[in-house]
Amino acid sequence: MHEYFDYTQAARKAGISPEDLATLREHIENIYPSQMLREMHLYTICTEIGQGKLTVEEALKPPSGELPDISNLRLGG
Q1: Rounded distance, CA 1 to CA 47, Å?
Q2: DSSP string covering 4-61, please?
Q3: pTM, two decimal places
Q4: Are 44 and 75 in contact (CB under 8 A)?
Q5: How many domains does the chain have?
Q6: Is residue 38 part of a domain?
Q7: Among 20, 34, 30, 18, which Cα is nearest to 5's?
Q8: Is residue 37 part of a domain?
Q9: Cα 8 vs. chain centroid, distance in angstroms?
Q10: What residue numbers bound the domain in which 51 lies?
Q11: What is the residue-level pLDDT of the chain in tens, covering all 77 positions?
């Protein structure tokens, strides 16, 4: 459940399945120690997917096989 950013609503609007959202959340939890940062990045990723700037597949499995570099994503970008 969210506390700072409603990424679950953004995920629903973007058509991200609950399973894919759980996988994204797991990846993000391994990167960011802060709940607020995790939620902000999840919200950003979901919004980017909803806007067609990123696909679920790209977010889940980038070409390099490593976790995606989400440091350059901006809210409202």
Answers
A1: 17
A2: SS-HHHHHHHHT--HHHHHHHHHHHHTT---HHHHHHHHHHHHHHHHTTSS-HHHHHS
A3: 0.76
A4: yes
A5: 1
A6: yes
A7: 34
A8: yes
A9: 10
A10: 7-60
A11: 678 999 999 999 999 999 999 999 998 888 888 999 999 999 999 999 999 999 998 888 755 555 556 666 565 54
